[in-house]
Specification:
Blueprint lengths: L1 E6 L6 E14 L13 H10 L4 E7 L5 H7 L6 E9 L5 E5 L3 H13 L7 H4 L3 E3 L5 E4 L12 H10 L3 E4 L9 H5 L10 E4 L7 H6 L8 E3 L12 E7 L4 H8 L6 E7 L1
Parallel strand pairs: 2-3, 3-4, 8-9, 9-10
Antiparallel strand pairs: 1-2, 2-11, 4-5, 5-8, 6-7, 11-12
Length: 266
Amino acid sequence: MKTAYVMDKQTKQTTTYLKLYKSDLHIHTCLSPCADLYMTPRKIINQCAEKGLDIIAVCDHNSCENAKYVIEAAKKYNIMVIPGMEITTIEEVHLLGLFSNYRQSLKMQNKVYSELEGENNEDLFGVQAVVNEHDEVMNLNNKLLIGASKLTLQQAVECIHKYGGLAICSHVDREGFGIIGQLGFIPDDLSIDAIEISCHTTNIKPLLERNPELGKFPMFFSSDAHTLDCIGAAFTVLLLNNPSFREIKLAIHERAQRQIRSHGVC
């Protein structure tokens, strides 16, 4: 993190109480069937430390079971881990839910599990491993995590907010499972908190020209990493007082001088 110099609007004096935090708010673990089996909690955190990330979010498909172990693995490092999940709605739109603590993410997981049908076929979709902070396999999840839940997009957003979370439309620049690719637009009554741009887009100007409605939403760049080398491939720099969920909410709404400061793709 780096100290940022900020002007206090009331005193007109420069203060240094805010800092810049490098974040990647969309990382999968080996629990996601499409992720590499090397995406274990300890290896993920080691890679995050090498990439200089201060804040990350663990967002496996339709599950948050590995998030608690990544949180444990990060305790030896100065890295904040947000428990989350990437929900697939009935419209086959991917939606990130980020939560203040694991207990709240677990409530969302229970809701998603109740609306998720089918069993995983490892030969077709891949292994879904629950792995602890020591990189030991605890069990294999047999739910069809790659599938779509029966939750509508509206219902999923409402549930995320019910449990105090942030609802972010995943990779809106991608055709597959992005809200623009699936629906062609963002419904006016959909109260999302932000949108996400993937590491595949280095210039957002053409995207905004094609879809000007995207410009009204706060925007995160995230890696959507499924392999270790992709962690931090896209990132967002946040101006915060400290690395906390409350501070990130303030930055999204540009309150108390907190803000999304910049983005990067590497």
